[in-house]
């Protein structure tokens, strides 16, 4: 009987922590998508960026790059982030034929938000 009680309390504690958000979100995300982030199983935003932005850059298709950067401006999971502003600046640069400026906006956004995004939102769907 003691073992059942102990197990029940442990299970209730773990479930309670998960329900109240006390369980680290990165742990829950990793359990939900244990291989998310690899080349074989990229996370949703990673997959979209490589397939859309990466393809436009690789093909030197600046109109497609501008369109993709405009779309990526809508993906910010936190309204306080300047993600949209940075992406729109990159889209404007692509429309002007400024590949270096477009790439600089990608780097600026990655430098500022990549780690936070990965730790909190890596499994978030891309709409």
Automatic annotation (TrEMBL):
<dbReference type="InterPro" id="IPR002321">
    <property type="entry name" value="Cyt_c_II"/>
</dbReference>
<protein>
    <recommendedName>
        <fullName>Cytochrome C</fullName>
    </recommendedName>
</protein>
<keyword id="KW-0732">Signal</keyword>
<feature type="signal peptide">
    <location>
        <begin position="1"/>
        <end position="29"/>
    </location>
</feature>
């Amino acid at each position: 009987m003691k073992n059942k009680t102990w197990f029940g309390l442990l299970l209730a504690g773990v479930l309670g922590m998960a329900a109240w958000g006390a369980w680290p979100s990165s742990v829950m995300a990793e359990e939900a998508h244990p291989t998310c982030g690899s080349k074989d199983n990229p996370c949703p935003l990673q997959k979209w960026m490589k397939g859309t932005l990466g393809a436009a850059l690789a093909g030197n298709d600046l109109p497609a790059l501008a369109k993709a950067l405009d779309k990526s401006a809508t993906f910010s999971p936190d309204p306080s982030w300047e993600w949209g502003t940075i992406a729109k600046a990159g889209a404007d640069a692509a429309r002007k034929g400024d590949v270096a400026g477009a790439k600089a906006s990608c780097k600026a956004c990655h430098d500022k938000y990549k780690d936070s995004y990965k730790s909190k939102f890596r499994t978030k769907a891309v709409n």
